[in-house]
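Notes taken during the Thursday session

The instructor put the following on the board and asked us to keep it in front of us for the whole hour. The protein is CBS domain-containing protein. We were told not to look anything up and to reason only from what is written here. First, the residues (237 in total):
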Amino acid sequence: MIVLLIAKTVGDSFNPSIYDIILHLKGLPFLEANPEPWMRNLSVGDLGDAKPPVVTLQGVEKVARIVDVLRNTTHNAFPVLDEAEVVPQAGLATGAIELHGLILRAHLVKVLKKRWFLTEKRRTEEWEVREKFPWDELAEREDNFDDVAITSSEMQMYVDLHPLTNTTPYTVMENMSVAKALVLFRQVGLRHLLIVPKIQVSGMSPVVGILTRQDLRAYNILQAFPHLEKSKGRKAN
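Then, after some discussion, the predicted structure tokens were revealed:
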């Protein structure tokens, strides 16, 4: 046991664990149990700014827009935005934008395959959704729509995304530290975490970013913020 302990200590001083190397080579988004100390000095807003702009959809969206998003992105979820109704007590005026929720890529593919299209821009009734989408089908993770042929006339139709949207996604303020976000991700077992602005300004999007497990891996963060690696080395010394 003493020999094994000494051998492991010496090995870890020269290179990472073999398990860490395998996780890195396979690209598996494994999060460490505890955040790195330097993660307290970085906010999720800074992390979101280092990524491409977040891709959003409208509550009632055009088929052409959905097809374009699925073809040109690899994201597994998209924020759904709506125009807010008049809410005097909240001080929101008509035309303000609010976050309705988060819709999965698999559900968008399901909509296209079932051709659940509307000829006019409107919201659907509950019975229409239950008739077209059994709950067991929505549980399937299907994200390949290469075999779906959409006609030019169907491209101009609409899809009501409200019934298929998760209206209670986890959100964090843009000034929250990455360390806290990582702990939340691990404890709740999240797949996506939406970043919302600290101050909502008229005409501004209610979502400024979206984080996944890959974004919270220490290695990926250091690739985007190399100066943190230097500060990490100074503290270690």
